[in-house]
Amino acid sequence: MVYTICIGSNEHRRENMALARKRLTEMFTGIRFAKEEDTEPLACHRPEMFSNQVARFASDSLPCEVTRCLKAIEREAGRQLADKQQEIVRLDIDLLMCDSEVYKPEDLRRAYIVRGLEELK
């Protein structure tokens, strides 16, 4: 199966994005990353910029297993439920697609994701 994910952070962005790439590379051999982009916050009042990056990899793991891995990386970066109220996103890793099944159709329309997908073709 081919998985497409998006990584994002607005708190200690460089460190958290680097942690995500390191862990993802360790977990998913052959993962490819699009260029990291700085983006304006979309649905936040907090003015801090976001770093976002699209990645793609193949894995025999089921989507639920992949999602568990992604959430474990978020927790390693210090993500906590309480951060959401303060609009702090230490690390967010979303499963966008598995093969042709789309999990986040609204995200696939975002310009930085469209650019990332194009780059990973």
* Uncertain stretches of 5 or more adjacent residues: none
- Spatial separation of the terminal alpha carbons: 16 Å
Q: Return the average pLDDT rounded to an integer.
A: 94
Let me know the largest β-sheet. Answer: 6 strands, antiparallel
Query: What series of H and E elements makes up the topology?
Result: EHEEEHHEEH
Shape: globular
Q: How much strand content do the residues show? A: 25-35%
Which value, in Å, is the CA radius of gyration?
Answer: 14 Å
User: Could you say which structural class the secondary elements and strand pairing correspond to?
Assistant: alpha+beta
Instruction: Please count the beta strands (DSSP E, at least 2 residues each).
Output: 6
Helical proportion, percent range: 25-40%
Count of separate DSSP helical elements? 4
Q: Brief description of this entry?
A:
The chain is an alpha+beta fold. The protein is 36% helix and 26% strand.
Folded structure, characterized:
- The two termini are 16 Å apart.
- Strands 1, 2, 3, 4, 5 and 6 form a 6-stranded antiparallel β-sheet that branches.
- It is globular and about 35 Å long.
- Helices cover 36% and strands 26% of the residues.
- It is of the alpha+beta class.
- It has helices spanning 13-27, 63-76, 81-85, 111-119, and strands at residues 2-9, 32-33, 37-39, 50-58, 92-98, 101-102.
- Strand 5 (92-98) and strand 6 form a beta hairpin.
